[in-house]
Amino acid sequence: MVMQLDSHLAAVTRPDDDATAGRKRRGAFITVLYGALIVVVTSHFIAGPFRYLGYDARNWSLVDVLQCGVMLLILGSMNYPQWRYPSHVAYTFLVATVAVPIIVIPVFWGPLTASGVLTLQVTTLAAFATMRLCLAGGRVPLPGLKLPPEVFWLVLLVVSVGGIVYLIRSTGISPTVLSLSDVYSQRDDFSSNVTALGSYLVGWLGSGTLPAVLAVGLYRRNLILVGSASMGILVLYSITGNKSYVVGVLLALVGYVLCRPSVRSGRSWLIALGSAVAVAAVFDFFSGSFAMTTLIVRRALATAGLNTALYFDFFSHNPNYELKHSVLSFTGAPPYDLSPASLIGLHYYGSANVSANANLVADGYANFGILGCILMAAIFGVFLRIFDKASLHLPLQVSAPSLTLVLVAAANTATLTVLSTHGGIVALVLMLFMPAVVKGKRWSTESVVVKAPAAHAAET
């Protein structure tokens, strides 16, 4: 009888196990293809014109390429075959924008030796395995104060409008139609005039608040919410000159589509971003330029991978910060007068005005070496896990896109800065207090205050 029961259970569970294994194999294969695509596009469109920015070719070998392929296969096998929580979506996004560029770019460009490249690749895998471990298991909802819808949306409206008005008045910069070619002068104006509070407000609103409003508007099909959030983000772009806000709106829309119940595949972000890279390459090939590839590949992917190699090269032979320039300043003076990004900019690019920002791996190595990479991955993994617990009452199509601009910052900025300045903690608190959201059946301009029925349960 027991043997018959075991056989029945095996017959029931084996198809699901086989399907999961198949999805993992396809995901690993797509990860390799995605990495190869980044290398090909970087080689053809970016490395030559931007050699002065550190794209010096390495003397790579076939062994290096095979080693890179193995690393990508391992990385792809660690990805989630199916998304259940916002952290699963975030993990895939970081695999595509942080881990893959770090694994592939230093193999072909940069100052690292063969052993240095291997160390960087293994460290990156260890960091992402640590983050994956932090996200293991189920989730228990956080006990939060769920505000009445009318109170929540009124407070959010007052804070958002008030914050944007404060930024405009304190900086003296009026919102204008800003072209992508004018962003650098606008950034200088903003940096020169922004107050300490304003520098925080930008991230809290642009990354931590407005993407969540946009996601709720899309889910409820509410034109007022979608229009208000999009307009708010574009106003922040016009004031700050930060192009990530424009890109972030597009990525939030893509994330919303990818989180539909019929999709939610662990390889979705890889396919979406890979498609964007391919389209940019085709456009530049026929236009004879590198405008699209420099925006989508060089700025968003390749340079962060290259900068991570520069961090490893420099801090393998020089003292670490040990967060003495940040939250551990009370333990003593930092070894350098400049921030890590400015220090790397001065050493490798010849100017401290160049902010060579990278990601959690580079940030961790600058502070505590290899153990620092593991530490920063663990910190961000714990943050993502708490975010899951705070947003369990919300549909994945709301909670996951709400993190989009926080993740964009995480791919280019130090971990603690992402949480404190670029909206990470704000987004988490917003999820904790946000009322349940009901899916809209048609687009409308109805009041944003709609009470969810008591029996409402979020999608999983």
UniProtKB/TrEMBL annotation:
Highest taxon of the lineage: Bacteria
Keyword Transmembrane helix: yes
Keyword list, A-Z: Membrane, Transmembrane, Transmembrane helix
Transmembrane segments: 28-47, 59-77, 89-109, 115-135, 147-168, 197-216, 270-297, 365-387, 394-413
UniProt KW Transport keyword: no
Protein known as: Uncharacterized protein
Biological source species: Rudaeicoccus suwonensis
